[in-house]
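Quick start: read one record
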Amino acid sequence: MKENTKFYLVKNRSAGQVFYSVPDMNIRRHFAPGEMIKVSYEELLKLSNQPGGKSLMVNFLQIEEEKILKDFNISVQPEYFMNEQQVKDLLISGSLDAFLDCLDYAPAGVIDLVKELAIKIPLANYDKKDALKEKLGFNVDKILENKKAEEEEAKNPGGFVAETKTAEKTTTSTRPATRRTNVNYKKTEDTVK
């Protein structure tokens, strides 16, 4: 079987919708958050050669097949391979150093997952909350406070509820000169510690 007739699973691991088109193949893709679609090698190759295509593949989509990344000369950090369970494990029981490396090196889609799960779980570790606030301007406590206020308002329409606002600051992350940990998030039976 020729390489370009093989299909590979591609997942949108970001919190938002992902769209792309490959005009010369007459393809327009739409990925809902968390959706996985089988995509041909040829389509991925053409996407990687379009302006912004590689960035989309690195930051928002996940291709678990390392061969594709190597074929298209896409270099990724170990956090690229993190799945939802590994992010949960990192939030709940992972080391602070591994968490800081994640915040410094993970692609945007993984950072979206970290934020989403930090609220959903919710994140209890104060050092990790502080790191999220410092590095990303993402204040877990304020968001949970606002969420609770919204729930109270829904229970008591028209009643008085103090208004609180949380602003997320946009930051440009500067990576440390060296990684704090040596991790491997590729598919294995072991969980990340």
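The first helix runs from residue 41 to 48.
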